[in-house]
Amino acid sequence: MKELAKLAKPKFVPPLHDRFAPAALANRAFLKLVDESEEGEPLIIALERGGGQVSVFSTRCFAETSKYAALNLPYAERICKFLLWQHGGWKFYIGGPKSIGEHIKQVYSATGARAFDYNFMSQVFEHPMTIEAVDASKVPGPNEGTVTLGGHLDGCRIGFDLGASDRKVSAVIDGEAVYTEEVNWDPRGNSDPSYHYNEINAALKSAAKHMPRVDAIGGSSAGIYINNRPRMASLFRGVPRDVFESKIANLFIDLQKEWGGIPFDVVNDGEVTALAGALSLNDTGVLGIALGSSEAGGYVTLGGEITTWLNELAFCPVDYDPEAPEDEWAGDGGCGVQYFSQQAVFRLAAAAGIEIDQNLGLAEKLKSVQDLLNAGDERALKIWECIGIYMGYGVAHYADFYSLKHVLILGRVTSFDGGNIIIKKAREVLEAEFPELAERIELHLPDEKTRRIGQAVAAASLPVTKK
Predict the structure, then answer these.
(1) The whole model's pTM is what?
(2) CATH topology for 145-467?
């Protein structure tokens, strides 16, 4: 990884993080070396998930005989990591040099460096994760799946958004939010499933008081949801696995029953971020990025559809520095959660010499740093400038994996003036380093109201009601 990171030479160095090695630059430099060497060959990676759906990514690498062949391994591993959390899946097909396939087999195994990823995907897709090394010509073709989701705002609806530090709810009548509420809570440390059920239900009841009836309920939450059933979710991290399966797995199904069986849909919060963007922009090709307690991502295709991908950008690498900060859950360095979330603010605050009261809750900790920013504290300004630089290089990296026309940036970290600083620095990076992307990708920051509660309103549009 060290040699690959050396290829990344950013023009913009984050003021509190001088070792930042942007993945977007390292990958481009790697491919330039491959082309200049005239020793390149195809590297095609396919990832299979549920229902026989397959996503395919085509790139290039050095031939086994090249003196640069060792660079193939960290490059391919980081690409596989991104694809795994972008799409989700249980089986990799690695079409290229044999050494790459063998390396991925070793790394993504029960005893390898990416054991967390191996176990996570095996559990979610209920199949042991498998890596098959094949000739590039024998990699299966793509078989993508998309679903039409959201945009239904008729009648009286409730929309909710569950974050790690607060839960939001909106009462929506014919597309207009007549009531919104934000309540701080601490789900990750609570092992009692009744706490989660009662808190969510309390939010629904609060919104229901402001409407004559409730026709449908839509929800947004961090994690992986299949048919309204959470399969993996950081919000419920404190719940023992056996209790999770017996109580949490059916939590939203039980809530639907309590609310009379009305249409009730819950999806990953990143998908609702993208949906909120597509609805507000009235366009497609939207990547939504929510900077909250973690990083949530979602994507609306150029055809206007929501994908069946995971889009868990929090786990996707954006920094190739071997000493990059690690995700506390997966134990991997350089992934989005440490660059586009409250965790990034807290990490950079320490580097800036800002002491945060550890007795505060997550939302209050963030607010304390935002208060310094609002007061003109130069140390706090550097934090958001760092995140803006990260975002510029991050968007360029995401553009290698998504067809983009718009990137919508929202979440609690963008509140007050922080969002404007992030957008300004990100645009500077794109214009200077990636002018071709700056011309075709627009960065958007919703207004304050949409920024804070837009996900809950968009979530209300998820269910289809009977006419």
Answers:
(1) 0.84
(2) Nucleotidyltransferase; domain 5 (3.30.420)
